[in-house]
Amino acid sequence: MDRTSRGIFVLRAVLGGGFLFAGLDKFLMWSGGTPFTAAGFLKGATGGAWLGSTGVVNPTHPFWVSLAGNASLMTIVDTLVVFGECAIGAALILGLATRFAGVCGALLMTLLYVANWSFATGPFNEQLMYGLIAGTIAYVGAGAYALDSVVEKLAIMQRIPVVKYALG
Prior knowledge:
By secondary structure, the protein is an all-alpha fold. It has one domain (3-167). The protein has helices spanning 3-28, 39-44, 61-68, 71-94, 98-116, 126-140, 148-151, 155-159, 161-167. The model has no long low-confidence stretch (mean pLDDT 90).
């Protein structure tokens, strides 16, 4: 295969591995014995930072804190984060529904970027980079080393062009 296909595969596999590891870590509690909840992050890490700032600079901070205070919604948020990270990661690694997984990954990273709002070292943080890579994968598709290339050849996929495009 050509260098472009290999490059897309490497980006997909590494980003997918990062998402999958993050989701499995939360689900299996590898890093500690307490169940995952995003409430601590939403309460304590959404104040934001700017070069030399000491106070809350994130204009969306009150929204995240109020979300963290709603136990019913936090159950849904926690489930979506864990399931989303695992599903996005597995889909990217396998190259299955790649464009959809890329869009979902970019959306998740955008939400984390806005919630985190940490520009203490400049605006180019890991959420921005992961989101841009996920968005690029959604734009360019899965490449040659992907299950999408097998699935899109199925007869039913030939009749549904929108689904075929979402695969990648």
